[in-house]
Design a protein that fits this description.
Layout: H1 18-23, H2 31-44, H3 60-70, E1 74-77, H4 84-90, E2 98-102, H5 117-126, E3 132-136, E4 141-145, H6 152-155, E5 157-159, H7 161-165, E6 176-178, H8 180-183, E7 187-192, H9 199-202, H10 206-209, E8 227-233, H11 236-239, H12 246-251, E9 254-257, H13 264-274, H14 283-298, H15 310-331, H16 340-346, H17 364-384, H18 390-395, E10 401-405, H19 410-417, H20 423-429, H21 439-455, E11 461-464, E12 467-471
Parallel strand pairs: 1-8, 1-9, 4-7, 7-8
Antiparallel strand pairs: 2-3, 5-6, 10-12, 11-12
Helix pairs in contact: 2-3, 13-14, 13-15, 14-15, 14-17, 15-16, 17-21, 19-21
């Protein structure tokens, strides 16, 4: 039986044989009908059918819902890092939590309508006494990354020499070693980067998508597979590694175009959802990262055919948090809180995630640094515009300076700035809860204001040897 301890949140139904299953009132449904019924129920209840998907509510998801309700296999087309794989993986949540299968079947046969020769023979001889297992929906998702070396045997199947050596004849269907497609029977099969699949291998998918069956090395066997096939692809004009051949395109019921997020709040929400932060990263820093990504996606210095993945923003947030944790470890700070300077320090490690235009060779850091300044200034204006900052500028009128850097602890920054009028207003505008405010959060706010004053030409700044000095 299926080990229900792997899914402790629920227990599978009790029928243990085909007879008990039939007596329970169970009715077999196709995978697409199962998904359709559950999606309709989810939509009617006002529930989220695609948890964890950010920014697609009014664009991508309606198209995906229509494809699923129509019972169509479909392709998700879009640049890298747009959440295509994440979206494919959420579809499994629309399957029934538990589904029955004939015990020991390699392709997870439907108990009331088996398709493989072994199970048909078993049902013909043992009838209602054939034992069944219960399979959790998480186990009904199969994902394959298409690579040029993928073979027909990997996807469909091949002759198993071990079974032949045991005495079976080559014409015996029992000698077949099933590939990923038949093993994904009665589930969702996802194929990532479909254009990377060799064209002759794409041909092997024709029958699966149209006639819903497979053929293995000329065997007289027909397996009418029951599955939903979803594929992802990057635009052909960017990858240049291959294409989806026209007959295969025609067999997919729908093509859904994904996109990057164009809203700062959604980008921040995505970072907060996906990033594993080892230190506190204030929201205004995340907003700077989100705006930086949007600047990169519109810059003429960046190869826009490649795109700028959401992974850039996630990695930037994680690296910025790591920089804060490093400072805390080296200086003995009690709390690690990221500051705007930490983001600038990690840019060199992120440039490999962006493809630049040919004319920008050697200027990569300069380009990203310029866009970071634009993003910081925009966030500063959005958050602090109209606020009284004379308390900060007055601090520097007598020639005073404030020194900060990747190894300058928060306490040192706060000692230099002292008691500054307007600081409470800044903390409020940056969303810092005054009841739980910490020195690290105050230092992060102070450094952000100083950087904003510099970018708006109200304060000078000098950088040298990992140190940043604001003021005269």
């Amino acid at each position: 039986m299926v080990d229900s301890s792997q899914h402790p949140a629920s227990v599978h139904p009790t029928p243990a044989t085909i007879g008990q299953l039939r007596a329970s009132g169970y009715r077999a449904r196709t995978v697409k009908a199962e998904i359709r019924d559950n999606l309709v129920r989810t939509l009617s209840a006002g529930e989220n059918a695609f948890p964890g998907i950010v920014g697609f509510d009014d664009t991508v998801l309606p198209d995906v819902q229509r494809a699923l309700l129509a019972g169509h296999d479909f392709v998700l087309l879009g640049e890298r890092g747009q959440g295509k794989t994440r979206l494919m993986r959420t579809i499994v949540g629309l399957l029934d939590e538990w589904s029955p299968e004939i015990s020991g079947c390699e392709i997870h046969d439907e108990p009331l309508a088996p398709i493989c020769s072994r199970c048909r023979t078993l049902v013909a001889t043992e009838g209602d006494d054939v034992p069944i297992d219960w399979r959790h929906r998480d186990d009904r998702y199969t994902e394959k990354l298409a690579t040029p070396d993928t073979s027909v045997g990997d996807l469909v199947g091949d002759v198993d020499p071990t079974k032949v050596a045991e005495g079976r004849t080559l014409g015996d269907p029992e000698t077949i070693h099933y590939g990923l497609l038949p093993r994904g029977h009665r589930g969702v099969f996802a194929l990532n980067e479909l254009p990377d699949l060799a064209e002759r291998i794409q041909v092997a998918l024709f029958n699966v998508l149209e006639e819903r069956d497979i053929q293995v090395r000329g065997y007289a066997v027909r397996l009418p597979l029951d599955m939903l096939v979803v594929a992802s692809a990057n635009p052909e004009d960017y990858t240049n590694r291959g294409r989806i051949i026209t007959p295969l395109k025609d067999r997919f019921g729908a093509e859904v175009r994904t996109h990057y997020l164009d809203d700062v709040e959604q980008e921040v929400a995505l970072i907060q959802q996906e990033a594993e932060l080892v230190a506190a990263v204030p929201t205004h820093i995340l907003e700077v990262i989100a705006r930086l990504v949007q600047e990169l996606r519109t810059s003429s210095s960046i190869d826009q055919r490649s795109g700028v993945s959401a992974r850039f923003a996630i990695a930037a947030a994680e690296s910025t948090a790591a920089s804060a944790l490093r400072r805390a470890a080296l200086t003995g700070e009690d709390e690690a809180v990221a500051r705007i300077g930490d983001l600038g320090d990690v840019l060199p490690s992120l440039r490999g995630k962006v493809e630049f235009e040919m004319g920008e060779e050697g200027r990569e850091l300069e380009v990203v640094g310029h866009l970071l300044r634009l993003a910081t200034a925009a966030t500063f204006r959005e958050r602090v515009a109209g606020g009284d900052l004379t308390g900060f500028t007055a601090h520097f009128e007598d020639g005073s300076t404030v020194e900060t850097g990747d190894l300058v602890p928060a306490a040192t920054v706060l000692e230099q700035i002292g008691s500054t009028p307007g600081l409470a207003m800044i903390l409020e505008r940056l969303g810092v809860d005054e009841e739980s405010v910490s020195p690290g959060q105050v230092a992060a706010a102070v450094e952000f204001v100083l950087e904003g004053l510099h970018l708006t030409r109200r304060l000078s700044k000098v950088e040298a040897d990992g140190q940043t000095i604001y003021g005269s």
